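Retro notes (design track)

What went well: tokenization of the new backbones is finally stable.
What didn't: we kept losing track of which sequence belonged to which structure.
Fix going forward: every design gets posted as structure first, then sequence, in one message. First example under the new rule, 251 residues:
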């Protein structure tokens, strides 16, 4: 039987984060669902509890050190010391470089990179004490470059370097660090992109799928399946890796 461990999933109220939270709960993990507004986590928490799992929802800004410290402390008090961390929280502020503002740049860097740093620094103390831990960072195929996403691409590429450094520093303490780089996944975020383009979501998905070797776009559950492996006991000898979950090879 899988040992009862406590996991934190940031950005866990919807999309990929929600799917990961539900998948980890199904594997017997106690799950803390963190998102900017605690009320937004209610549906995911209720779904986990409805199937007999243990979960709490916490509202926190992962880019604010005081919020992070308070959130991790609360997780420890209510669910037990967290030894699994999934850094999924993220935002988009897309624009071409000449139109991108400093606020657009800073906001994306703060949530993706500063947020992952603050959360990882806080949780690793519990992992090191336990002699076991899993850190999983959500990167993206945009790390390879994507028009209109200079900020997002840089942040997602930065997460890959951050992941590899964590693997080097924390491996001796029984802690692994890996990253998943999703391709196109059906979420509220990609639905909003279709709306900006003036397309129905169905037409948008069909158009995108033409360039994906497996012939379909991704689902949050596809990413959650990979997350379940990386955060499990069987991944003890896998660290510092970036897995592209994109329906085909990437450059």
């Amino acid at each position: 039987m899988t040992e009862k461990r406590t996991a934190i999933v940031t950005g866990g109220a919807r999309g990929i984060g929600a799917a990961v939270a539900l998948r980890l709960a199904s594997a017997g993990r106690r799950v803390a669902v963190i998102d900017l507004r605690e009320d937004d986590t209610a549906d995911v928490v209720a779904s986990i509890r409805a199937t007999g799992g243990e979960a709490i929802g916490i509202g926190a800004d992962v880019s604010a050190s005081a919020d992070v410290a308070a959130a991790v402390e609360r997780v420890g008090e209510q669910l037990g010391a967290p030894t699994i961390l999934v850094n999924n929280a993220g935002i988009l502020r897309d624009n071409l470089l000449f139109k991108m503002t400093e606020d657009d740049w800073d906001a994306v860097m703060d949530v993706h990179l500063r947020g992952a740093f603050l959360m990882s620094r806080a949780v690793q103390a519990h992992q090191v004490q336990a002699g076991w831990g899993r850190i999983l960072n959500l990167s993206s195929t945009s790390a390879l470059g994507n028009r209109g996403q200079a900020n997002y691409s840089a942040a997602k590429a930065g997460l890959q370097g951050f992941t590899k450094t964590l693997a080097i520093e924390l491996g001796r303490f029984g802690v692994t660090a890996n990253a998943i780089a999703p391709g196109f996944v059906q979420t509220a975020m990609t639905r909003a992109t279709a709306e900006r383009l003036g397309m129905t979501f169905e037409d948008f998905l069909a158009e995108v799928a033409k360039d994906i070797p497996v012939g379909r776009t991704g689902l949050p559950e596809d990413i959650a399946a990979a997350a379940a492996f990386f955060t499990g006991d069987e991944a003890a000898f896998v660290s510092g890796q970036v897995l592209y979950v994109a329906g085909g090879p990437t450059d």
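Added context from the reviewer: The helical segments are 15-26, 42-50, 65-78, 102-130, 150-170, 188-196, 201-209, 220-230.
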